[in-house]
Amino acid sequence: MKQQLRVGVIGCGAIGKEHLRRLTDVVPETIVTGVADYFLPAAQSAAEMFHCTAFQTGEDLIASPDVDAVVVTSADPSHAAYVLEAIRHKKFVFCEKPLAQTAEECQQIIAAEQAAGKKLVQVGFMRRYDRGYMAMKHAISSNEIGAPLMIHAAHRNMSQAPGFETDYAVTRVAIHEIDICRWLLDDEYATAQVLGVRQSSRTSGEWLNPQIMMLTTRSGQRIDVEVQTDGAYAYDIQCHVVGEDGIVSLPDPTSVTKRAAAAIHTPLMTDWKDRFIEAYDIEFQEWAKSLLNGAPTGPSAWDGYVACVTGDALIRSRQTGKPEDIVLPEKPEMYQ
Ligand SMILES: NC(=O)c1ccc[n+]([C@@H]2O[C@H](COP(=O)([O-])OP(=O)(O)OC[C@H]3O[C@@H](n4cnc5c(N)ncnc54)[C@H](O)[C@@H]3O)[C@@H](O)[C@H]2O)c1
Ligand SMILES: O[C@H]1[C@H](O)[C@@H](O)[C@H](O)[C@@H](O)[C@H]1O
């Protein structure tokens, strides 16, 4: 069995650089051998920093005999093509969320992976590796709160990069809740709806903010997700699962409590990089170990597909003003 995986990273922006550092410093099973970015200076500076080759294109990186596994951290619209190209080369590929822009592209990925006859794809739903969510799942599956009835969740961001659009509140932001809630409840969704709400004056007004996303599961549980994409007081992620016999809540990350000036202060985080730093570390450690054992075990192309189908239904419902049904084909054997 190989002891180290040679990894190439496509997309050397914010999370690309985070994962490059992680693959270099935190995951002993990986060595970064190449980087690519369509903005070549970004690839060159990352190559210098991480002592590896800067490839001219993502396709060159994928084809390189020095790359065993690919990490896709480029912009959303480029994900599907790189994932398909990696599958064509029968290489493992870790793709940041979303897996693709459309459900059809996800289906192409699923078809290609099945034709390759081997699980190759993992999607970057890192919250499944967060200790808080893992403890919640354990409490639910060991029946500590009885049958789960509903989830109240919130995803609050302080700002967004220029060019943000209303739909991105689903495809880039709430996509994490879409994945984590079905994982927590171990159920699939039946309907999705976006509700309107008074708009925040703390945002530019170029897109809808906040939005409330409602999901129901096949067994009738209800999930409400408050999504603030801009202007929130902190980067704050909340999740409460209400069961017949009790409630489990996502713990806040540990921070020092200060008692001063006749008050108690507990600082909150402002950035996803810090809030989920340990989850990303564990995600990549587990990914590398699973590949050395033969196949990825984390969120699959099917999970990426379900997230896209659910996101599409949420976006449709904003246009129709009604709950939209979520219909899935049968789950292929590979993802059972
Ligand atoms: N899991 C998470 O919590 C999480 C957090 C942040 C970002 N992301 C995802 O990671 C991806 C990157 O996000 P980011 O914040 O680092 O963005 P970013 O804009 O900081 O970086 C993207 C990089 O990709 C490059 N790029 C864009 N299109 C490309 C293409 N076709 N080929 C090669 N390179 C290309 C850009 O030049 C840039 O350097 C997004 O898909 C985002 O949704 C996930
Ligand atoms: O809302 C942000 C999420 O909380 C992060 O985890 C990233 O996915 C980022 O891209 C989103 O903009």
UniProtKB/TrEMBL annotation:
Protein purpose: Involved in the oxidation of myo-inositol (MI) and D-chiro-inositol (DCI) to 2-keto-myo-inositol (2KMI or 2-inosose) and 1-keto-D-chiro-inositol (1KDCI), respectively.
Keyword ATP-binding attributed: no
Oxidoreductase among keywords: yes
Domain Gfo/Idh/MocA-like oxidoreductase C-terminal: 137-323
PANTHER family: INOSITOL 2-DEHYDROGENASE, PTHR43593
Keywords noted in UniProt: NAD, Oxidoreductase
EC class (word): oxidoreductase
Protein origin, superkingdom: Bacteria
Residue span, Gfo/Idh/MocA-like oxidoreductase N-terminal domain: 5-125
Similarity-based family: Belongs to the Gfo/Idh/MocA family.
Protein's name in the database: Inositol 2-dehydrogenase/D-chiro-inositol 3-dehydrogenase
EC nos: 1.1.1.18, 1.1.1.369
Secretion signal, residue range per the UniProt entry: none
Record text on subunit structure and interactions: Homotetramer.
Gene: iolG
Reactions it catalyzes: 1D-chiro-inositol + NAD(+) = scyllo-inosine + NADH + H(+); myo-inositol + NAD(+) = scyllo-inosose + NADH + H(+)
Known pathway: Polyol metabolism; myo-inositol degradation into acetyl-CoA; acetyl-CoA from myo-inositol: step 1/7
